[in-house]
Amino acid sequence: MAMFRIDEAKPLGRIAPEIYGHFSEHLGRCIYEGIFVKPDSGIPNVNGMRTDVVEALKEIRVPVLRWPGGCFADEYHWKDGIGPLEGRKRMINTHWGGVVEDNSFGTHEFFELCRQLGCKTYINGNVGSGTVQEMSEWVEYMTFDGVSPMAELRAKNGHAAPWRVDYFGVGNENWGCGGNMTPGYYANLYRRYQTYVRCYNHDAPIKKICGGPNVDDVKWTKKVLKTCFGHPQPEDVHGFMDGLSLHYYVHPGGWKHKGSALEFTEEEWYATMEKALYMEDLIRLHGDVMDKYDPEKSVGLIVDEWGAWYDVEPGTNPGFLYQQNTMRDALVAAVTLNIFNNHCDRVKMACIAQMVNVLQAVLLTEGPKMIKTPTWYVFHMYRDHQGAQALPVKAEGVGAVGGSKMPAVQVSASKLEHGGILVTAANLSMTDSQTVRLDLGRTAESASGVLLTGEAHAHNTFDAPEAVKEQPLAVTVVDGAAEFELPPCGVASVCLT
Ligand code: AHR
């Protein structure tokens, strides 16, 4: 039996709702078709945003959305995406399929989408091919409330009131697609560019995100932080750097031969689980360096790209990164979100890549049809962790899987605002069911649960959209503790009082 002792008395801290964030790039069919269909489309929409997609995203309470990239961000020139549609410049999306980008989804459309979702906004600026002036004017355009050239231009384009930018990323992957920079060079650019990300709304200052490492590149983290926090030392970390990004993707077969999303062996299942669990090592690795410069943990680790990345679905554009989503992806999401909850002292935001039709998407679309993926269900089952107090959990008697490298069951727990305790559990075994016992150290008054289960390869299609969906979970209280059976590849969400 896998036993978990949950300590209600010593919360680890608040789980930032932003840990459940999303990422939408101008890549393949994420923005265009997936989210935005233009107002005159036959697909029901509000101001161009697909109604089915917006409604499904509201159900999982998207807390924050990152846009416009990704690699696209460092090629994006925001002035191309404002003003009358017919005048908007066309460009080649060189990173993603070499297709023509018509800029019909730009700044105004992004804020409209976030308005409809009711989520926070995370804009990623262009350091790789953009100027300081361009970045500074974008911030002025979006947030200045007064008389200024950019505020006037915004009003001329139909939006007199400023918007609220919650987060601003100063470049993306500047060690790679964002300019192939060295860490010292980027860090100096960060110092310079962030200076001009002005705070015009003192009631809601923009939080600035510095471009952090790829996977385990701790040299990048060390050099960037040393340069940023070196001479002259910024007087106050707030307003200078609020977050450091980390990008990590799970490629079961490695970067070159990632493997199929739908066809995989038991060996590949466990390789995927092991790589998903590796997120915890990465948080510790980079967190230790961050602790040196920021012992107060004022700078959040912002995992603004994570998820499983496989070979594209056969027959689809290789530059569009379209992949199916199975119970294996549900497990990747469940394990990763549990890790973030358990490290909520350092991880302050995370954005799954990407929201619709790209990589580990929560939704897939085909013309007017839309399906929820197993990953969507995990976000749905975990949604009450947002803003809750993470609780420490001690595991006892948990078996191992995958050649004894991994725990069979992995969990996280939180105390909800309205009372009650939410425990989310993932069974990493591809073949064996596990009996799980949750002990609060007192008699549980009530216990109820929801389960996502299916064979490892199970997934939803446009013909069978509900092959995988949530179902009730039988939870019983035995000698004061909650017990339930977690099937192989199962994810459970249990609420205890
Ligand atoms: O999410 C796809 C790409 O992965 C992003 O554009 C880039 O930042 C990362 O390499």
Structural class, from helix and strand content? alpha/beta
Helix content: 10-25%
Low-confidence stretches: none
Unique bound compounds: alpha-L-arabinofuranose
What overall geometry do the principal axes of the alpha carbons give? globular
The number of distinct helices, counting runs of at least 4 residues, comes to 9
Terminal CA distance? 22 Å
The radius of gyration computed from the alpha-carbon positions, rounded to a whole number of angstroms, is 22 Å
What's the rounded overall pLDDT mean?
96
Strand order of the largest sheet: 3-6-9-10-11-12-13-14
What features would you describe in this structure?
The chain has 497 residues and is an alpha/beta fold. Helix content is 24%, strand content 25%. The chain is built from 9 helices and 28 strands. The strands form 7 sheets. An 8-stranded parallel barrel has the order 3-6-9-10-11-12-13-14, surrounded by 4 helices. A 7-stranded antiparallel sheet has the order 2-17-21-22-28-24-25, covered by helices on one side. α6 packs parallel to α7. The longest helix is centred in the middle third of the chain and has 28 residues. The protein is globular and about 70 Å long. The protein starts with a strand and ends with a strand. Bound molecules: alpha-L-arabinofuranose (AHR). The site of alpha-L-arabinofuranose has 10 residues, from loops. Alpha-L-arabinofuranose binds next to loops.
